[in-house]
Amino acid sequence: MTWTVTGTEATATPPSFAVPHMDNRLLVTRNGITSQEILGDQTSYTYQLARFADALGADAAFPSGIDGSVANAELIDECYRRAGLTPRGA
After folding, report:
1. Which of 4, 31, 42, 86 could bridge 46 with an S-S bond, Cβ 3.0-4.6 Å?
2. DSSP symbol at 20
3. Distance (Å, whole) CA 29 – CA 73
């Protein structure tokens, strides 16, 4: 699965969006020229867990608040509904 994000100055495509630990490149195309950036080689869950642990250890505010978490859960539920499935926990 590949996604492309298009901005005003360039596009960015991670070739393996769903499994970044299998291909950790980010292809950036600007003015018809494509370059690649090499990202970390861990799974996205590993990076999320590390960030969460950093926030807990530093006693710092978590980067996303409860409103964002609830909105994300509601979006996931809506994806289930549109796919003809029952949201988990319902």
Report:
1. 42
2. T
3. 32
**Alpha-carbon distance values, 47 to 18, 23, 34, 90 (Å):** 14, 15, 26, 29
Please list the residues that pair with 37 across neighbouring strands.
Answer: 26
| Residues paired with 26 in a beta bridge | 37
Fill in the amino acid letter for 70: V
For residue 36, give the nearest of 11, 8, 55, 58 by alpha carbon: 11
Can you tell me the distance from the alpha carbon of 57 to that of 69, in angstroms, rounded to the nearest whole number? 21
d(C-alpha 3, C-alpha 12), whole Å = 8
Q: What is the pLDDT of residues 60-79, one digit of tens each?
A: 666 677 888 899 999 999 99
Identify the weakest region by mean pLDDT among 9-13, 21-25, 29-33, 85-89. Answer: 21-25
What digits encode the pLDDT tens for the residues 39-64? Answer: 877 877 888 888 888 888 776 666 67
